[in-house]
Amino acid sequence: MAQKISVVIVSYNVCQLLDECLQSVERALEGIEGDIWVVDNKSTDNTVDTLRSKHPHVHFIANHQNVGFARANNQAIRKSSSEYVLLLNPDTVVYEPTIKGCLDFMEAHSEVGGAGVRMLNREGNPAPESRRAIPTPWVSMLKMLGFTHRYYMSNLPWDKPGKIEVVSGAYCMLRRKALDQVGLLDEDFFMYGEDIDLSFRLLKGGWQNWYLPFDIIHYKGESTEKTSFRYVHVFYQAMLIFFRKHYGHLSVLLSLPIKTAIYFRAFVALMQMMTQRLSNFLHPQNDIKA
């Protein structure tokens, strides 16, 4: 029987988090024709061997190197054949009604290509990243200056469905027909930015992206190391890739300030990181948590 939905999870050294995520997905898929794909990017914590026996119905793909988030997702998407695809981070817990609720909405609205949900933090508060706007040069400049209302689409209510522009890659439900039209994730993005790029291409292709008031818990950042110099490089490089791809045609007068701002923010992030590391070295007692 053809699958209604394939859930795709890319993992890297998050065995325990992934185990909890898989348990929640299996509960949420009860009564739904669906399958689960885990693409492991050469974890060193024995993820695949540990979880394969605990989750015998999950399809595991064990990569021999870390191929990045976009390419790993594409591996599973190409192997699956379902009507819908759900891209899901391993540091999430999916509430039981969430997948069915999203499917019901997309089944009733054929114009919807992508759907995201209300992502809750540990304290149960909605994350602003649940609804985002395309980072056009103007929106990006506002955000870099600290004006985030437009970028996070803060005018939308949390308890009602609403059109958005960017669906977060942490929970991104996609219609296969839309993917066939606009293409899969752009593998030029190693990590970060690929969800923005895909969301933008869906909009350009005439599809709609929606926020739906169904819940997941997102332990944001616990599946990636965000205190390394590599993170800063990869994150801001993704911003540059997106800008060059979609706004490279702009004149120098418009593009130069944006590129300068991106490099400046990367420099500030690196300086903050170096200052924190120096402080931790000089005052190691600050690292001790009560």
Describe what you observe in this structure.
- This protein has helices at 15-28, 47-52, 69-79, 98-108, 137-144, 176-182, 194-204, 229-247, 252-282, and strands at 5-11, 34-40, 59-62, 84-88, 92-94, 112-120, 162-164, 171-175, 208-218.
- With 290 residues, the protein is of the alpha/beta class.
- Strands 1, 2, 3, 4, 5, 6, 7, 8 and 9 form a nine-stranded mixed sheet that branches.
- Strand 1 (5-11), helix 1 (15-28) and strand 2 (34-40) form a beta-alpha-beta unit.
- Helix 5 (137-144) runs parallel beside helix 9.
- The longest helix has 31 residues, at 252-282.
- The termini are far apart.
- Mean pLDDT is 88; it is low at 223-227.
Quick rundown:
The chain is of the alpha/beta class and 290 residues long. The chain has helices spanning 15-28, 47-52, 69-79, 98-108, 137-144, 176-182, 194-204, 229-247, 252-282; strands at residues 5-11, 34-40, 59-62, 84-88, 92-94, 112-120, 162-164, 171-175, 208-218.
Summary keywords:
41% helix, nine-stranded mixed sheet, 290 residues, alpha/beta, 9 strands
Shape: globular
Major sheet size, sense and barrel closure:
9 strands, mixed
- Mean pLDDT, all residues: 88
The share of residues in extended strands comes to 15-25%
Helix content: 40-55%
- Give the number of DSSP strands: 9
| Tally of contiguous helical segments | 9
Low-confidence stretches: 223-227
Order of helices and strands: EHEHEHEEHEHEEHHEHH
Radius of gyration: 19 Å
Structural class: alpha/beta
N/C terminus separation: 54 Å
